[in-house]
Amino acid sequence: MLLTNAAVLVGVSMFYVLSPATISSPVLLSEAIVLVAAIIITLFLNLLLLERALAPLEQLRRLMQAVDPLRPGRRIELQRADSDVAALADAFNTMLDRLETERRVSARRAVAAQEEERRRVARELHDELGQVLTGVLLLIDEANRAPPQRASQALEEGREAARAAIEEVRRIVRDLRPEALDDLGLASALAALATSFERRTGIRVERRVAADLPHLSSEQDLVLYRVTQEALTNVARHAHARHAELCIEQIDGHVRVVVRDDGCGFAGAPRDDRGIGGIRERAMLVRGTVDVQSEPGRGTQVVLSIPVQQR
């Protein structure tokens, strides 16, 4: 656009230099008419050239408004454009490429996570609940054929097995949707999660929960709970730790959850196969951030920070 304006000014200047036109003092009417005509012609030429130079920007604006994330592949193609406008279009196309790639990766990861969760539930239903219920059926059959004393014992064993099946169903339901989160709030739900983790893995969890935690939305509560759950699962699966810490606090308008262990740690960036990608995506849903720090032999620390919504 600088070249466009320069071309117009140079053209007008050459017109005055090469033409016989003069300007008197005071200005004559004929000279004023020529001067006004020259200004109008200058503005008209400037308008035409600028409109042509800025046409790619208008095309870019229309494309930005028309971009549909569900219909990828649209790109801006400029036939003739200023170098700055062409650079802006290239940057916009590159941004679309990056966003569409990230969207595809996120969608694949979400589908994979859903399928993994379905496989886990199906495996637990088959391996745990299915075996217990099969045992109950066998005990009932035995009670039908056995003498009264043995039948009574078989029925009692079947009753205990049925209770175990009910507890297993409740555990699976709690894993799918934590009841304590709805009934008792975030702090109590995380305390129950830590207690269950200790009982299941034998890894002692030290808990520190701030008493002045602010009220969070249900979506924020769920993200905090799921990220903590995933971080503790990683401790059990990969850390080979004997001790873990769970800290919940409010700092500078943010609620922060820290999960730290004394396990083996790792070098370099954390791998997505340890659920870090899913943790980061969950945090993004509530404008949160996740920081993972680890050193070989010195354990791992996962920090989730979520801004508190002002009421």
Reconstruct the topology from this structure.
Blueprint: H1 2-18, H2 29-66, H3 83-145, H4 148-176, H5 179-183, H6 186-201, E1 204-209, H7 218-239, E2 243-251, E3 254-261, H8 276-285, E4 289-294, E5 300-307
Parallel strand pairs: 1-2
Antiparallel strand pairs: 2-3, 3-5, 4-5
Helix pairs in contact: 1-2, 3-4, 6-7, 7-8
Description of the molecule:
The model has no long low-confidence stretch (mean pLDDT 79). It contains eight helices and five strands, in the order ααααααβαββαββ. It is an alpha+beta fold and 311 residues long. The protein has a five-stranded mixed β-sheet, covered by helices on one side. α1 packs antiparallel against α2 (29-66), α3 (83-145) packs antiparallel against α4 (148-176) and α6 (186-201) packs parallel to α7 (218-239). The longest helix is centred in the middle third of the chain and has 63 residues, at 83-145. Helix content is 64%, strand content 12%. The chain has helices spanning 2-18, 29-66, 83-145, 148-176, 179-183, 186-201, 218-239, 276-285; strands at residues 204-209, 243-251, 254-261, 289-294, 300-307. The protein folds into three domains: 2-101, no CATH class; 112-174; 180-307, Histidine kinase-like ATPase, C-terminal domain (Heat Shock Protein 90).
Keywords summarizing the entry:
single chain, 311 residues, alpha+beta, Heat Shock Protein 90, 3 domains, five-stranded mixed sheet
Quick rundown:
By secondary structure, the chain is of the alpha+beta class.
| Mean pLDDT across all amino acids | 79
CATH class of the largest domain: Alpha Beta
CATH superfamily of the largest domain: Histidine kinase-like ATPase, C-terminal domain
The rounded distance between the terminal residues' Cα atoms is 47 Å
The computed structural class is alpha+beta
Helix content: 55-70%
CATH architecture of the largest domain: 2-Layer Sandwich
Q: Shape, please?
A: elongated
Segments where pLDDT lies below 50 for 5+ residues? none
How can the largest sheet be summarized? 5 strands, mixed
CATH domain fold name of the largest domain:
Heat Shock Protein 90
Q: What radius of gyration results from the CA coordinates?
A: 35 Å
Continuous helix count: 8
Give the domain tally.
3
